[in-house]
Specification:
- This protein has 299 residues and is of the alpha/beta class.
- The protein has one domain: Rossmann fold.
- The chain is 41% helix and 14% strand.
- It has an 8-stranded mixed sheet, with helices on both faces.
- Keywords: Oxidoreductase.
Amino acid sequence: MTWTESQLPDLTGTTAVVTGANSGIGLVTTRELAAHGAEVVMACRNVEAGQRAATGISGSVRVEALDLADQASVAAFAQRWEGPLDLLVNNAGVMAPPRYRETADGHELQFGTNHLGHFALTGRLLPALVASSHPRVVTVSSIAHFGGDAEVLRGNKGEGRYSAQKTYSQSKLANLLFSAELQRRATAVGSRLLCSAAHPGVSATNLVASPDGLGALPLVKHVAPLALRVVLQSAKAGARPSLYAATEGGPDSYTGPQWLGQSRGPIGPAKRSAFAADAALAEQLWELSDGWTGVSFDF
């Protein structure tokens, strides 16, 4: 399809939360939602970076502290929330730190941030979401999810030698399984909640250069920002699937670029791996995630 951000509807009266909103796809998503009338909360681990980014946005935005690698921070963010929430964009992520690291709660960093952080955030914000007349949750995955498999149920623990890319793939598979299972559970109880997923293809963002990911390697940190801008599509293009999912995507839809192995180009329905389409695997992961985070979803 030829859909672009220029086709976003009037979002006046919509309240949204975007995680990882201070840079890359999250920043573009925030900017476009605000430009079309939404009130956007930029949920950022680095509040100062978020505030600097916010100064360049036209529209209603505010910055709130949120560290998805710390369940206490997730709980505190949800406790501060007041009123209905119309849109939650689970965008933030960590990609492929070269050495094994853990969250504040003892989970592998990528799985604990990308999946468990967003699982807990969504569950804790569920009362605010269901209080909306048109609630929507968008979860950002990746074409890297094709590298994930049934070992996702280990939560990236006990896999032997640490593989940065494999654990990233498992976390992105977990994102897709979570989105699908959330929609199934919402539908089963007659909830209005609409859950959709998106992936950006391969875009020039801070995800690669971040010191929490591959940017921990000095060469990547210094070379990646320029090299990525030359080779890859822009963050603006990468945000289109998320923006479409946030406004137009149907229940359990998955949107991404259509060209060059889903890495770039016009957006449309994205492909899922067999594991990502496995409802039994999604249910198992949900129950484990409930136990790991202590967060239950009460519709």
